[in-house]
Amino acid sequence: MNQLKFLNNGGEMGKLIRERDWSQTPIGKPETWPQSLRTTLSIVLSSKFPGFIFWGKDLLGFYNDAFRPSLGNEGKHPHILGLKGEEAWSETWDIIEPLLSKVYNTGEATWSEDHLIPIFRNNRLEDVYWTFSYSPIFDESDSIAGVLSTCVETTKEVYARKQLQKANQQYFENIMQTPVAMCIFKGENFIVEIANDMMLELWGKEAHQISNKPIFEGLPEAKGQGLEDIMNQVYTTGIKFEANERAVSLPRNGGLEVVYLNFLYQPIKDVNGEVKSIFAMGTDVTAQVVSKHKIIESEKKLSVVIDSSKLGIWEFDSKENTGIFNDRYAQIFGFENKEQLSQDMIGKLLYPDDETIRESANIKVIETGILNYESRIYNEDGSIHWIEVNGTMFYDDDNKPSKMMGTIKDITDEKKYKKDLIEREEKFRLLANEMPQFVWTADANGTLNYFNKSVYNYTGLDESILENDSWISIVHHEDQTQNMSLWSNSITTGSDFVFEHRFIREDGESRWQLSRAKPLKDNDGKIQMWVGTSTDIHDMKELDQQKDFFISMASHELRTPITSVKGYVQLLKNKYQNSEDAFLINALNILNKQVTTLTTLVTDLLDVSKIKSGSLLLKKSKFAINELVEDVIQEIQHINQHHQIIFCQETDKEVFADRESISQVLINFLTNAVKYSPDSLNVSVKSCIDNNYVKVAVTDKGIGLREEDKKKVFDRFYRVEGKNEKTFPGFGIGLFIASEIIRKHNGKIGVDSKMGQGATFYFELPIED
Ligand code: ADP
């Protein structure tokens, strides 16, 4: 037995080897075993480190107690002891055999870490991981006789690591998928280790722009906003940082935009408590912050509105019977601020005579939930003020009144103004009623609401004519349409109403009236009402008609003798044109000029009566405007040699017009230009195109016109008043006729002028192609 000393300390495995009858095996009794096997076996058996020996060419297996647990129960132990390698490890032989061959062939040891070598144990084939080394065992003849495997089973560690990896994976996946922006910054440079889509969206970056880069390199836009300092602090102190609604500029829509963020920086520490990374979580709360700002803004605006409206605000708790109010409320009672006014004091400051008003308003609140009344209060200084109270009732869940909120307004001035207005209106009516003229008023919309007594006396009607615009019935039916259209034009434009129309008298007769109405405006220029008068002009109108009739008759009667005189003057001129009697020639020239003037005057007068009676007719034809202008210039130039008339033609357009009348207009312009510019030598005429009109303009450098006269010169018999007037004889009808002629041609007539700087009179005729 001495020879088997090498098996002495082998524990269970030593015992098994000792007890085995090896004589029947190819290796023979232990006593015959080579020294190299004995030595290796004794080392392995006494080692506490797991070891396995493959021996000889059959690779017979020996193992120690420390290796034993790796074989499990119900498995290879103990029958693989001394068994051929191929048989003992049949299930994994294709993994083990190449490694063993390598050792045999090269004589070099192998090293495998966490290598999967499944093993049949515990009644099944289990996945087992090993970290092991195969090293050669040399025999006495220096050749490799076996392989020593020192190994540790690392299955548990491998599983634990896998578990950890899985957990990590899960953790990362969780971060990636959570609906909150999350990321991890690694190390002191804050390298973006992981960031989910929401975080990328928050940063306004793509993953490739920022992943695995220091955050302030991948997102330089975030620099200089204090975030570096915060992160450094979290990293060095290990204390988390939370921010609410922090404004940060970040890339948005191709530029930088301020966004508001809620975020958390949470330090992540290792087992030694050292910060290794920072976990960050953020939410974009821009929309909420913006709407909060808007609310604050609108609250501010509301308070500005309330302040400027001078409304006192109050709230009354119906259950507690207590009230609160603002400073303005107290100021309406004459106090400086709300602290100076108590609920009790308010009760004493209410005007006792208005008790019934307040009571009935309070009864109404119960029915309608709305409070609205006007009553008086005593001011702190004893004066009496009118206030308007408005309020709304609020109800609790049981539909019981819980509180009331509302406003009060000092309406003392308003009341006084209204009272004054009523008094003034009363006075106006008293006055208006005594007037022989018709006086009437209308509201801003043009609805007539008042006639003075004269209207009722004249028409024999009563106030019902004010209803539904039935007043129009007092207007003669021929004048009604134009009356209505002029009136509604004044209402919409705010311009004065002026109209001559007939009113039907009680006896059915109608008389001409000149009606005028003016709008009354408030301080802001808004129309408050219209005041109108109608004056009887019937007699004047008749006289006017008689005058027109007379003018018409006279001009007719005058025309024949004047034409005859003109003819004889012409005959005389022809007859004596070569006479040497200078006096005769001069007298005939003067006669001719005066007869021409007289003819023009009579023709003009006749035209006026034609215009009045509507019998001025046009004989239209197509002609070149320049030819007409040249003819007229020649004619005028002939009579007025003092002035030089220059014609500038910018168009050669033809017009479709009454040649005779247009000549008359131009003659009037030129005669006036010469007449009203005695100190100047030139008059210029220009023909051109202006928009869709052919325009002819006559410019002189004469006395010019005042602004207010420019429109009026086209009125009948209008002559500019002033000291120059006597120097320039005339009737004031030439321009009236000219404007009527141009109006009948659907053209335009006008004047540009400045006092003392000459005038440009022009007419425009529409181009008709
Ligand atoms: P009149 O016969 O008085 O000239 P018109 O109807 O032709 O009548 O002219 C009306 C008024 O217009 C004239 O009285 C004059 O005051 C003014 N007027 C007309 N043409 C000119 C002009 N070229 N320069 C200044 N005032 C003019």
From TrEMBL:
Its EC number is 2.7.13.3. Residues 371-423, 497-549 form the PAC domain. Residues 553-769 form the Histidine kinase domain. GO terms for molecular function: phosphorelay sensor kinase activity. The keyword Cell cycle does not apply. The keyword DNA-binding does not apply. Pfam families: HATPase_c, HisKA, PAS_3, PAS_4. Residues 298-369, 424-494 form the PAS domain. InterPro entries: HATPase_C_sf, HATPase_dom, His_kinase_dom, HisK_dim/P_dom, HisK_dim/P_sf, PAC, PAS, PAS-assoc_C. Keywords: Kinase, Membrane, Phosphoprotein, Transferase, Two-component regulatory system. It catalyses: ATP + protein L-histidine = ADP + protein N-phospho-L-histidine. NCBIfam families: sensory_box (TIGR00229). This is histidine kinase. It comes from Pedobacter psychrophilus.
